[in-house]
Amino acid sequence: MADRFMAYTKRSDFLVCVDSDGCAMDTMDIKHIRCFGPCMVEEWGLEEWREEILNRWNEINLYTMTRGVNRYKGLAMALSEIREKYCGIEDLDVLKKWVEESPELSNGALERAIEEHGSICLKKALSWSIKVNQSIDRLPQEDKRPFDGVAQALEKAHRDADVAIVSSANLGAVLDEWDLYGLLEYTDVVLAQDAGSKAFCIGELMKRGYAPDHVLMCGDAPGDLDAAEKNGVYYYPILVRHEKESWEEFVSQALPRFVAGTYGGEYQQEKRRQFLENLGQS
User: Cα(53)–Cα(196) distance, rounded to whole angstroms?
Assistant: First the structure.
């Protein structure tokens, strides 16, 4: 949204960008464990292998280098493994082809593809996605909380730097979740799904006059690292299963190094290594 970038005013020479789901907010695990995986099992009638399939869904989407992958890419990956190990999946190759070739992977784009192809697998994928959204909407608000230490970290960061939410989640959900826990007061701009890719958003913010070594992206998924590297800025990982410790280190080490100009070099390399190893890639 061009208006959001135009309205943004730079306060500081430093900029901290923070992802929402799975990074600041403890919402990624609950959405996949309670919504995405179970809705897939229900939609394709996979109850016979429920436990094994749900465990594998979570590995793909939460605990490996495909963490944070687009929902339809994750679905195609999971269904491909299910077809190999458990049962047939009608028209799966049509879904895989759409995932590989479509310039947009969204419910709207899938609806247009269904009009063109009429594939049963595409129809079931759309039904699954809609059920996922409905299931997420029904999650109790109190179950969607920030990780321990996030409020303190954001408050400290906001004293030393500008703070931008840079998320691929729905804007309304981000605003609701951050406002509920009083986190918006520690931010200067909210850039969500409608504002463009994370890499694009960081690049647009940098046009306000931030030097690359004065920008830090905090994230939990490979896409966050990629967005930082595309813009030549620093990356600080919030490690899955170690979120509390990650935010504590952000306050005690990462942020002080960042504003002192000593974040790069060995410390940045070590944080990158820890991030990749934590998701199973050494």
Answer: 32
What region, left, alpha or beta, does residue 93 occupy, with left being phi > 0 and alpha being psi -120 to 50 degrees?
A: alpha
| Contact (Cβ atoms closer than 8 angstroms) between residue 54 and residue 41 | yes
Candidates 98, 101, 107; CA nearest to 128 is 107
Contacts of 265 (CB under 8 A, 6+ apart): none
Bridge partners of 190?
Answer: 165
**Contact of 30 with 139, CB cutoff 8 Å:** yes
Amino acid at position 214, single letter: H
* Tally of residues, the chain: 282
Residue 172, φ and ψ in degrees, nearest 5: -60, -40
Q: Which residues contact 258 (CB under 8 A, 6 or more apart)?
A: 14, 16, 161, 216, 234, 236
Neighbours of 83 (CB within 10 A): 14
The whole model's pTM is what? Answer: 0.87
C-beta separation of 234 from 258 below 8 A = yes
∠ CA 37-39-44, nearest 5°, is 100
The string of DSSP codes covering 90-109 is: TTHHHHHHHHHH-S--SHHH
pLDDT at 196: 83
Distances (CA, A) of 44 to 99, 126, 131, 256, 262: 18, 12, 13, 50, 52
The 10s digit of each residue's pLDDT in 221-266 is 999 999 999 999 999 999 999 999 999 999 999 999 999 999 999 9
- Phi/psi zone of residue 39: left (φ > 0), alpha (ψ -120 to 50 degrees), beta? alpha
